[in-house]
Structures are given as C-alpha cells and as structure tokens.
Design brief:
By secondary structure, this protein is mostly beta strands. 6% of the residues lie in helices and 55% in strands. It has one helix and eight strands; from the N terminus they run αββββββββ. It is globular, with a radius of gyration of 12 Å. Pfam families: Alpha-amylase_C_2.
C-alpha cells in the first residue's frame, strides 16, 4: 500500500498524539492524507484535537482494524491502522 500512496512515501509528517504505547501521526502530500495509528499496548480510545489537517470529507481504513468517528480513534491492542482520505 505504501508504494501506491504519495502521502505515505513523500508526505510531510506531523505527530498528533504520542502517549504511553500509542502514537498517531498524519502524513500529507498535496491533497492526499494518511492517518496512521500505532498501539503497542491494550485496546484504547484516543481523542484527537480538531485540526484543519484532519478536516476531510471522510477517512477510509486501508489496513488494520481501528475505527475513527468524530475525532475519536478506537484502537485494538497491539495494532497498527492506516486511514486515507477519500
């Protein structure tokens, strides 16, 4: 998947959340955005700040089994999830 995504290959990176076992960042290249969440611990929920960077028509999960709704990420234990803007 990374080979097909300019955001993942070449995009600038901005950390959105880093606490305990969870890291969330967004990569942006032109109009393409990739939201990446990595959880090394127990299942959890993370609230993201409302940022213009995250204001897209919708996110589509490309890999992993996390869930995103209204600025909240629900992440399974020991997981990595990637969402792309539509």
């Amino acid at each position: 998947r990374r080979q097909r995504s300019l955001a993942l290959r070449r995009g600038g990176c901005q950390a959105l959340y880093a606490e305990g076992d969870v890291v969330v960042f967004v990569r942006v290249y032109q109009h393409q955005r990739a939201l990446v969440a990595i959880n090394r611990g127990e299942a959890c929920e993370v609230a993201l700040e409302a940022l213009p960077l995250l204001n897209v028509a919708g996110w589509q999960c490309k890999t992993g089994s996390g869930d995103i709704r209204e600025g909240r990420l629900r992440l399974p234990a020991i997981s990595a999830t990637v969402w792309m803007n539509r």
